[in-house]
Amino acid sequence: MSKTNADSTSRATTIKDLLYKYKFSMIYLVLLVIIVSTVTYFRILAQIEIGPISDSFDFLSNALVYAGQGMGYADLLRPPFFGFLISLVFRMGYISTNAVFYMDGLLFILGVIGLYFLLKLRFNDLESFLGALLYATFPIVITILGVGFSDLASVSITIWAIYFTVLAVKKDSKYFYLSFPLLMMAFLTRYNNALLIFPVFLYLLMNKDKINIKQVIMGMGLSILIIAPVLIFFYQEYGSIIYPFINFGASSAAVTGSTETFAYNPDVFFFVENFPSLVGLQGIFVILMIIFGGLALSLYKFIKKDLKWSETAKLALDNRLTHIKLVILLGLIIIFVGTFGKLFYMVNEVLFFIIAYLTFDITRNLNTKHLNLNWMFFAWFMTFFIFNSIFVMKDLRYFVMMAPPVAYFMILGLSEISQRIPLKFKNRNIIFPTVAILITIIMLFSTASQIPEIVSSNQDKKVIDYELKESSQWFINYDPNYKNQNIYSDLGPNYSWYLKTDVKTVPIFKDNQTFANGVKNETFNQADSDQYNNFLITNKADYYLSLREGLNLTSYTAVKQIGDVTIYKRNN
Q1: pLDDT tens digits, residue range 96-108?
Q2: How is the chain split into domains, by residue range?
């Protein structure tokens, strides 16, 4: 065969292989989209049955403002991007509470697709499929999916931002034109995403020799164009371009809080203790497979007397400078562990950043595959683990920012173990495909059973939403001039939406303390009632739409009771 014919045959074989790989990649992607879209559809149907929650009403009300259809109430201190996206739906004429559910679901699906592509930069098609599906079916993710919060929306934008950051380093620096604007969008969806600067900067620092600084600067410049209209809007609303950021910074910097507050929990191991319930049966199964597979592999190597340092590792670690770095690293780790949860969280964030880069610097010559990508994902996890563990107000849903890197390391562990266990069929390793089938079955059954449980466990919210609608309709008929009255409620955002006017929120008064959010014990005495009464009188409230049981308001008379809702009118 001539050289020309041989080259042609080689090129044809290469193209054929590429088409074959592309075909399977698309098959896994389509399958992933079908599964996740089906799950999202049924989860949104469940949430529509339950009804919106106060946070969702805030985003809906803000969206009306952004669409130029404001009704008097809005909470514009909230990050604006999620509400802005909903406003695009409103501008098309579809104004409904369901819009927030649909937008949440759509962004979630896009995020799962992004995670599949992000994982493909490290894993094969099947591994990437399983990793994306693991993330999409973690119980905590399913719990808040479609609720209309901004958590999953911010995660989805973050995933794409990280994906284009990695592409910018690995393939073309022009991808920074996408990554930095997306990082800005993630920040404008949830302000605590400002912490993404740690994993992103760490990744850039680890790959500084591959980066075109000019493209980085231009990408940052494009991100400024994204935030510029927001700053102008803030200046018009508050007379300051940074007031909402300062407000968030002050609340996130709090190191103490009242033990009576519903979300108060100073336990820095909160997410560790709740980890099994957050990742579910499928996550625990994966972890057990990794642990037992690792133990079996270690035992196998021990029996074969194959446990030994490579010559590369010995050379990399056996020099004086490395010894100095190891001593510094050990000291930093001791300080990090000793101060965790005792100082302002930013101290631990900076300490971990230094530890991460120093560890990478020491181990970079060990020829560990994808070392910088592994560290970037670990820094992504740790950045939000540190912040949410130290922050005294905790909620299980905050785990979702850590969920993508958790899924990454689960797949990394499974992949590494399966590749080292010599069990093949027709020259193909069947360990991972077999485990993948089992895990997928567990995920689907777990999700299918969880969605009905979400509906049954939220019947109280469903009932309250119904009572809010009914009481709103009664109130409209009772006082047709209500929009000119001064109205207060425990659920101001909800009533503002249903009444299409500004209903101000009454804080919770208990034991001579004032709480902006829920408390653990909602039993009120007369002293508490007096505080409610004084607050309403001081603020000249004409009506109080209350869900607090046991209140005795001396200056107000109950004119209607609908379930748990009591409508009070000020005495003349």
Answers
A1: 999 999 999 999 9
A2: 3-52+97-457, 460-570
